[in-house]
Structure formats: structure tokens, C-alpha cells
Design goal:
With 303 residues, the protein is of the alpha/beta class. The protein has 14 helices and nine strands. One of its GO terms (molecular function) is ATP binding.
């Protein structure tokens, strides 16, 4: 198992080892989160690489990653634990068939850990000393405020109370990464438990480096044109701007098509890789796309 980085420079190197191109601000807050053992709250638009940070951390620190994917209606039985009721009923029937009459003994047996189904929160608190897992709480803004309040309690003491078993405490707090796409505001009380960082769209230079690392087979000229094109799209008033994930997908798609450079027909045929709403696609197809492409070609020819 790799050691937690001892400096911001080591944190940058750790992320780079996982092919994550980060700026110093992100590396700084991540370093502080690891050293202070505080949750890191990452907010930003979809597709900018928030979730990837947790994956890279787990891989480079050689720790298991436990992911809690949030959604509307998420409750304790789905997020924390539940009992295996079917197995419990079978066990009770077997005990009765064997002639056992001690109801308290039967109850202790069926509410033992072998019938406990551990969901992500409980799994994250069950790590061994020295190898606490990376616990990704993904898209927290999709849940309701009731679950958010419960999560606040968990992150306060890193423990969960199960009435039939008692309190389960983490031997060592997990490395907690919380992400949100800002579809709603997260309560201040939870944010105060965390270190905060806004993950923005990368600069053109950083995005080009990301494409080079994630799609190494892409032609250099093509990669440059793709990044410049996407950067210009983000300056437009679109319903949903393309994220880094879409840039990578577009580069991979055009590489599969053996393209060496962008052209109007290719852009038109593959724009659905970048944009996911018809109004945005119609706007680019109406002439805006060709104008942007002409600007990209002109800039590269002058460079």
C-alpha cells in the first residue's frame, strides 16, 4: 500500500501517476484532506473529472474504493445496511424444526452479523487499520435533505448504530470524496465538515494534455483541433456544455474513424458525442459549427 503524500508536490505526482492532470489548487486541497483526514467536497459541472479523482486515489494509494451512487429516494436500507430477511426466515424455520424453543437465543442468532447485508456506508466504516478505503459519495445533490442529514451524522463520528447489534465504529476514517453537480444547494452544516473545491473546466493546455494521456493513439493535429473546438463551444450559451469526458469520447470516436483532422461533415456526423440536447445540436448544425471550425483552422494555421 502506498503512503499518503507528504507534500503538495507529492500529491501532484500521485495524481500524475494515475494519469490525472490536476492543477496546484486541486492538489493542495486534496493534500490537506488526506493529512487532516477530513472529507473533500468536490463541486462542478458534470464531466469535469470529479469522480475520477476518487478512482485515481484508490488506485495510486492501493486502497479499495467503495462507491455510494446517490439518487432521489435513497434510504438507509440501500445506503447503510439491511437484514437478509429471507435467510433469517429460513434459519428460524430450521431452528423450530430442530426443536429449539429458546426465543432469545433464536433472536440473537438471526440478528447476528452473518445475516447483515453491508451497504456502501457500512462497508466504508469496516476498513482495517492502515488501509481505510476511499469512500466516494457520488452526486450527493441527487438525494433529499433527510439523507443529507443522516450522512452528516455519519461523517461526524464515523460510526453507525444498528439497534440489534450496537454501534459500529471505523477503526480508521475512510478517505471520503463527495461530489455534486450543483443541481441543488447542499446544506452548510455538511459543507462545514468538509474541505471544499470547485472543479472547473480545464484550460486548453491542460485539456490537450488530458486527451494525449487518455487517447494516446489520437493524431496530434486532431487532438489540438478537438480541444480548441470544445473550448469555443464552452464560450457559447448552450443548454449543456460539453465536459472533459465528452472531449475524450470525441477524440476516441474520431480516432476509431481514422480521422487526422476535423472537417464540417465529420463534425456534423459526430456532434452527438459532444452535445446531448437537440436544441444545442440544431444550433451548431445551423452554421455556428462551421464558423467555429473555421476559427480553429485559422488559429492553428497562424500558430
Amino acid at each position: 500500500m502506498a503512503e499518503v503524500p507528504q507534500s503538495i508536490e507529492e500529491t501532484l505526482a500521485l495524481l500524475e501517476a494515475g494519469d490525472y492532470v490536476a492543477d496546484r489548487a486541486l492538489a493542495t486541497v486534496l493534500f490537506l484532506s488526506l493529512r487532516m483526514k477530513k472529507p473533500l467536497f468536490l463541486e462542478g459541472e458534470a464531466g469535469v473529472g470529479k469522480t475520477e479523482i476518487a478512482k485515481v486515489l484508490a488506485a495510486t494509494l492501493d486502497r479499495p474504493m467503495i462507491r455510494l451512487q446517490c439518487y432521489e429516494g435513497l434510504d438507509v436500507s440501500s445506503a447503510v445496511y439491511e437484514w437478509n430477511y429471507a435467510a433469517q426466515m429460513i434459519e428460524i424455520r430450521l431452528d423450530e424444526a430442530s426443536g429449539k424453543v429458546d426465543k432469545k437465543a433464536i433472536e440473537r442468532n438471526v440478528f447476528s452479523e452473518k445475516f447483515l447485508i453491508r451497504r456502501p456506508v457500512l462497508q466504508a466504516l469496516s476498513g482495517t487499520q492502515g488501509k481505510a478505503p476511499v469512500f466516494l459519495i457520488d452526486e450527493l445533490d441527487r438525494t433529499d435533505e433527510a439523507f443529507e442529514a443522516f450522512l452528516l451524522e455519519v461523517l461526524s463520528d464515523y460510526q453507525v448504530t444498528i439497534p440489534e447489534l450496537g454501534t459500529i465504529r471505523a477503526a480508521e476514517p475512510p478517505v471520503v470524496i463527495i461530489t455534486a453537480n450543483r443541481t441543488r444547494e447542499i446544506h452548510d452544516a455538511l459543507k462545514r465538515r468538509c474541505l471544499y473545491h470547485w472543479v472547473d473546466y480545464p484550460s486548453a493546455e491542460r485539456e490537450l494534455e488530458i486527451v494525449r494521456r487518455k487517447v494516446p493513439a489520437a493524431n496530434e493535429r486532431l487532438s489540438d483541433e478537438i480541444v480548441r473546438y470544445v473550448q469555443k463551444l464552452r464560450d457559447m450559451d448552450l443548454f449543456k456544455l460539453p465536459g472533459v469526458a465528452e472531449t475524450i469520447d470525441w477524440a476516441a470516436a474520431l480516432t476509431e474513424m481514422d480521422k487526422l483532422a476535423l472537417d464540417p461533415e465529420t463534425v456534423s456526423d459526430t456532434i452527438g458525442v459532444l452535445l446531448k440536447y437537440q436544441d444545442d445540436i440544431a444550433r451548431i448544425s445551423s452554421g455556428e459549427g462551421r464558423r467555429i471550425l473555421d476559427e480553429v483552422k485559422s488559429e492553428l494555421n497562424m500558430a
